[in-house]
Design brief:
Strand 3 and strand 4 form a beta hairpin. The strands form four sheets. Strands 8, 9, 10, 11, 12, 13, 16, 17 and 18 form a nine-stranded antiparallel beta sheet that branches. Strands 1-5-3-4-2 form a five-stranded antiparallel beta sheet. It has helices at residues 3-25, 55-64, and strands spanning 34-42, 46-51, 70-74, 79-83, 94-105, 124-129, 132-137, 140-141, 154-156, 179-180, 190-206, 216-225, 233-234, 236-237, 240-241, 244-245, 254-275, 279-288. The chain has 290 residues and is mainly beta. It starts with a helix and ends with a strand. The protein contains two helices and 18 strands.
Amino acid sequence: MSPTEFIIMIATLLVIILRVQVTLASVTQCKDATYSIPNRVLASHAFLTKPSPNIEDCVIMCIEHRLCESSNYYRKTKVCELNDKTVISNPEDMVDFEWAIYMTNNVRILPCYDFDFECGRQADICHLIKGGNMCKECGAALGLENGKIPDAAITASSFHSAATRPNGFRLNSESPSSWSVSVNNHAQWLQVDLGRIMAIKKVATQGRRIDSHHQWVTSYKVSSREDAWSNWEMYTENNAVKVFRGNTDKDTVVYNVFPQHIKARFVRILPQTWYHRISMRAELYGCSLE
């Protein structure tokens, strides 16, 4: 890399850091967002690799992800790697790589994404965008009840019979009467693929719709991930996995709101306690992040 090219890279990064600081200033204490090392990367610690058209997007991607401690950006291939370690914790893993740049995420308080409550209304989210943040209404049904989410996108650990297949998981479904498991245990789950990353703000549940079958889930956990390669993350509150209140009969709809929205493509419901048999119907509520 020539001296001129090196200067251009550093100048570009300084502009990006300034933009990120302006974005953060309105929502949290402003800190230096990034400490960078040109022409070097942190090897063997990337937990997520995604295309990124520019360095700015890579910086913001790291700030938004709660597990990101640092990032590598490859300018020629336009690829961003998010790392769970830093040059401080693992200096021996720094390697030379021309036209790449290593950046440490120094923002430990996540901007915007920790502050849905600032928007006031229960169904709103605080949405980080380039240049600032905004409150956004985020309470629309995502498509289980109305069929917008196709049957193929609803899968489960097991089901009891043709009458209780995973596609019976839809709120107010009559046929199938619900999703029901083949055997009651804590290994059961139902998964919904939303097709793209969405913000999920609320979930509604019911039991099985058959007069002769009194079956429902009385409590459950929720896990999610952004893509098929990421690890599943349990929803937590106050640093503990949250157990949500479920149903007490087969028809009443019970709602649970996520104080901090879930950002995910894949969502799993994991029943914890139940009445007679694990049986559920449900809807997810949220919005697009675009």
